[in-house]
Structures are given as structure tokens and as C-alpha cells.
Amino acid sequence: MLKLSDYDYHLPEELIAQFPPKIRGTSRLLVPSSGKLNDHTFEDLIDYLNKGDRIIINNTRVLPARLFGSKETGGKIEIMVERLVSETEVLAQIKASKALKEGQKVLINGEPLLEMVSRDEAFFLLKTVDNSPIAKVLEAYGHLPLPPYITRSDEELDQSRYQTVFNKEEGAVAAPTAGLHFTEEFLEKIKAKGIDVTEITLHVGAGTFQPIRHEDLDQHQMHKEWISVPQSAVDEILTTKQSGGRVIAIGTTAVRALESAGMSGELKAFTGDTNIFIKPGFTFKVIDGLLTNFHLPKSTLLVLVSTLMGKNRMEEVYAHAVKERYRFFSYGDSMLLIPKMDQQQE
Questions:
Q1: In terms of pTM, does the model score above 0.90?
Q2: 152 is a domain residue
Q3: Is the dihedral of CA 6, 10, 13, 19 positive or negative?
């Protein structure tokens, strides 16, 4: 049995980054290589990438997905949008003293703007009262949905720093955080070295923060997220592989999108939902490596990186990161995980 308790580690609370670094791209980078653990700054990433390699970035844009309102009876409500269902509907998690009932309205700024349509376990289907676009409600009243481990309210700096510089496709409710380290200048520097850049989309859902509730990992049901891996991306990746270059995913979201598109054993264009759970026994068919931030204890993403690098090696990596006081989670530092590079002995 794959046990959840095997994917735990002790993290001092003060290592959880509450703010981004003052200047984008000045965070630290931990690189397991040739059996060693190397401490770098983020821009040193370029030294580990070769001409002919390809990085895969997620061009999703974070919605202002947190809404504060009230019931018609006056009770306060906090809404966290999970995903857009249609132009006028969202699936959301709701915090309230008493659960919303079907047909009940949600007042925002004193106006009845949303109505509860139905409920599916932890998620509520909400629609706009007058069938106006839900995006307009979010733009007018929404807050950027900082993760639950960031214990402050969103501020003006988050408007830009909780988005990647390559964000385009609106639909995420959490940032693809490995991408937050990149500046436009650094991307140009990467391209100038002969490293190619391919864009795909995965709209990160709030389910990414849902805890695993079963000790037996095989019992865990992954949340669904919408992805788009276009034919152009498939062609670019296959060209890189045929010429001997490596495919490096920027973030676990890019991994999940690419490996979902390669589930048949052959990488194919794919648009739709994925609920892929990458855990021991999984064979990576598309990526050769991954740049990622550090993940929560007992999380599906910690299981993912442990599957890629080996559980014992990731325990060493995380123990080193804690000892050297790396900054953790969304606004924290990063690590470059390339299994073959770490296995090569000098």
C-alpha cells in the first residue's frame, strides 16, 4: 500500500514565504546533480540548460477568484471559485455558518448577484442572477486567491507578482508558481542560448490545495483541471526529442498537462479535463526534468516529485532545503529536478 504518512516532513512555519522576493527572479535554486546538492540563485538555471533543450511554460492567467458577500439573511459568505463552468456559471467552495440552499441568492456589495443552483459534495454550482458574464462579477469584486498558507490578505503587489510574465489564458484560481521566477529578460537570455520555449495551458483549480484524506494513496480521487496541449506544442516537443534535446517542464502543472497528453504512450494534442495522479508506478513518457517550487507535506505534488526523483532522494532534497533555510511554497524558492543529471557521477 502506498501510504500518505510516508510523504511527510517537518517544516518550520517561518520558512513559508509570505511575500515574493523584492525583485522577481532573485530567489534561490536547489539542484540535485551527480549525487550532490548544489545551492544556486535562480538565474544559474541557464547553466544547467543546453542548446537544443526545450522548456515548457504554462500560460494560464489567475482569476480574481475570491469573493466576499452575504446571504439575504445577513450571514457572511466567502466564495472561492474552483473553475469556470460556462460564461455565467462557476463551481466554487463556500465558507458560511450554514450551507447555502438551492435558489438562495448571494449578495455582493449589497446586490443579489449570484444564485446557488446545485451542490456536489464540497463544491457549489453558482450562476449570475441576470445571466451576465461571471467574469464581470469577478473583475469588479474579486480578490486574488492567495493560497491558504499565506496568512495575509491580498495586496496591490500580488496583482502582478502572483501572475507569471507569460500569462495569457484566463481561467486559473492559483498561480503556476514555478513560472513566477521568470522575467521577460531572463526568457530572452534563455532563447539567446538556443533553448526553445513552448507554451501549453493548465488552469490550476482550488483543488490543488485540497488535502489528501486517505492514508492509502490509491483511495485518493484527484480533482479535475482543464488543459490544452495544442498540435503546435506536440510538434515542437517531438522535434526536440528527435534532435536529442531535453524537455524540461516549468512547474508541476506543465508536467500534468504533458503527461496527460502522453497517456497513450504517444504524445498527442489534447484539450479537456485531466485528473491524472502521478504516483509510484507511473512512467514519465514526455518530460526529462522539472523546475518546481517546494511542496506541502502530505500533498499530491510531493508524491509527484518523489515519483520522478525517487522518494529517498527527495527526502534528502527537502531536508537540505529546510536546513539551508530555503523559502517554501508559492512565493518561495525553486529546485531543478532532472533524474539523469543527478544519476551521472562525476
A1: yes
A2: no
A3: negative
